[in-house]
Structure formats: C-alpha cells, structure tokens
Input
Amino acid sequence: MSLDLYQQNILEELRRPRHKGVLEPADYVVDRLNLSCGDGIKVYLKTDPNTKTIVELAWQGEGCAISQAAMSLLSDEVIGRTLAELDRFGQVELEQLLGLEDITPGRVPCLMLGLEALQSIEV
Output
C-alpha cells in the first residue's frame, strides 16, 4: 500500500473512530498504557454470559495515530467473537487491518496497545 493511501486510512479512522465512547454498565473494563510513549486505551466490553461472545464494545483513548486507528478498526473486528478468539489476533492481523506492510519496531507497542488490553481479560 502506498504511503498516501496508508495515511488516508489512518486519518479516516481518526476522523470517525468506530465504537469510541463509554459503555456502562460493562462486564469488563480494561486500561492499558504504553509507558514508552504515553499512549493510553480504556476498553469497555459487554459479553454474553454463557458464551463470552463480545456483544458490545466501547473504548476511549489518547495517543498517536497508529494506536488510536488500530483500536478503532479492531473494535469492529472483535464484536461477535468470543474472548478466547482474541488470542488468534496478533501483529500481522493488525498490520493487515491498517493496511501496513511494514511497521518500525518502535511503533509495534502503539499498534498492539488495544489488542493487548483485550487479550489481558481473563476468560
């Protein structure tokens, strides 16, 4: 993907973030902070009590374009999946969601922040 198209994808997610907000009451609330750059994400989930399928998700965050755009796209991707299925996601899947071909090692923690928050939920 060209740099211009990549930047357009990221900017579009920042302009119209998916599922950004607060969800109360929530079954799970998880905070995650990237200490190296100060990015932060807070995720709220409602799940089906029997199947642990994510039925609703909201998030709040501040930080760089990659961390915020990744969480926006990821939020759409995980609704309808079980908490156990979140372990199937990794860096490669997030890069594909964002349309990234290669991310510098220093930006990987930004990319992974929201996913790590979700994966920290005990099933």
Observations:
- The chain has one domain: 3-119.
- The CA atoms of residues 87 and 119 lie 6 Å apart.
- The mean pLDDT is 91.
